[in-house]
Every structure is written in C-alpha cells, then in structure tokens.
Known about the structure:
Blueprint lengths: L2 E11 L5 E11 L3 E5 L6 H8 L7 E6 L2 E2 L4 H6 L1 E4 L11 H11 L6 H10 L15 H13 L5 E5 L7 H16 L3 E5 L3 H7 L2 E6 L2 E7 H8 L1 E8 L15 E3 L5 E7 L7 H10 L4 E8 L2 H12 L1
Parallel strand pairs: 3-8, 3-9, 6-7, 7-8
Antiparallel strand pairs: 1-2, 1-4, 4-5, 9-10, 11-13, 11-14, 12-13
Helix pairs in contact: 3-5
Amino acid sequence: MHTILKVSNLSKTYASGFEALKSVHLDIRRGEIFALLGANGAGKTTLISIVCGIVKASAGSVLVDGHDIARDYRAARSLIGLVPQELTTDAFESVWATVSFSRGLFGKPANPAHIEKVLQDLSLWDKRNNKIMTLSGGMKRRVLIAKALAHEPQILFLDEPTAGVDVELRRDMWQLVRELRASGVTVILTTHYIDEAEEMADRIGVMRKGELILVKDKAELMHELGTKQLWLQLQQPLRQLPAELAGYALELSSDGSELTYTYDAQDARVSIVDVLKHLGDAGIRFKDLRTTQSSLEDIFVNLVREQA
Length: 308
C-alpha cells in the first residue's frame, strides 16, 4: 500500500532541554485510519505539530506524499487538514464565512458547492449563517472539522477530536471519519478514549516519553497481545483451591463462589477442555461460565506499564 506520510528519525528538543520526541520513525498508508495513543506528555501533539508545520523539528525529516515539509512546505501543507484540541475559532464570524476563509488560506478558488457539502455532512448547514459565538461546544468542534476539510486535504489530523463532547456527537464523528476514509482521505487521530481507537482504527501506534514504542495493525495487536479469561460461577463455594490445580492460573474470588482462569489465546498448550476436566476431577462443579477477551485498553495499559 502506498505510503502517504513518512516520518524519519524525527526528534524535538526544546530550549529548556526537554526532549519531546526521540528518533521517531513512522509510515502512514494512504486511506487508512491510524490511531496514536499515549498518556499526556507522550509526544503525540508535538509529532502532529511538526508534521503540520506548527513546530520545527530538531532533527529528522517528514515527507507528505513525497513533499518535504521543510523544503516544499506549501505543497506539503496543502495536503494536510488539522483539527486541533483547542476550540479556536473567530467568535464573531459566521460558520459559512470562517469555513470559506479557511479554504482561501490555501490558495484554493472559491467552491460554494464543496463548502455546502462539508457543512451538510457535519450537520452544520442550518447553522451556516450563525455566528460562532452562538454555537454549543459540540457545534464548534464540528466547525473546526469543517475548516480542516475546506481545502480538500488528503490527510486529516484529529487531535483529541471528541474531547468534551456528548456520546451522540462522538458517534456522529466516528461515522464521519469512516466516510472520509471511504472517500480516500487518510485519517490520523490521537485520543484518550481507547474505545474510540478500538472502534475505528486500522492500525495503532503507542507513544511513551517521546518514543514510538509500538506500531501494529489493530487486529494483529489484539490477536498477539490479548489475553482471554474464563469465568466460572461455582455450585458450591470453595475455601481454597485444591493443590492439584496449582499449575493453572486460577483465581478464587474472596467469597469462594467464583473462579477466573486467565490464559494466552495464542498458547497452543492451553486447552479450556483440559482445565474443565481437571476441575471436574477435583470435584468442582459450576453452574455458569463465560469467556471474555482483553480490550485494547487493557493491552495499552499493559504496554505502557511494561515500558516504564
């Protein structure tokens, strides 16, 4: 698949000596949704800011569809749309005016039909003549997305796009992101909502203390690093586990009424049938069972903890 964004050996050290990025390498494929995860201060926003030309890198290079962001800034920047975390808009402008102005900033000729489509897609058409100051926080967030899409970018950066918005708007934005991907736009998002990445992303990148510690396809990540649990509700409570079951990773609840077995789904030696047989041999009967698989949030927390 064609690489539309190539980050090579990217580093950023501020005058204070703080090293925000440390030799980051990253290739983004055309038409994918890439989720960048990490705690506050991990370097996500610094990385985006460098790619978008807001912050200057200390070392390394960034190519946007073959255009170097330093040597061919105008061409590179015209391919990028950015939705920042902060709700920064001109309070006294109308929705139509501020979105149209954003298109003009990139030297694009007026295209009322495109602006109308963007506003329609974002459920802003009825608000097109309203001043920004009269809109709700969620509507202002939509306006930021409209501004970022006004010049028809090939790459859209969404920096915490659903921070502080209600559940309904989050769902609307998820649908919009899918539609953008379907139209050929590459979407890169940072988020603190792990379920957001799990819902939408094709690939996941995890940052910690300025380093990109992992990049994987979401399905592969869930498959390789996920664990499963077997939960059993017992017919009779146990005071303690029999000695013959010590070899299994079984955990008994405090009241003795439940057993939880955690296992690696990729371990060929693991057999639920064997576990249940040994429980039966030990005289342990159960009246209900279920299995669960670790979420992306579980995997993320474990990754960051292991790298600490």
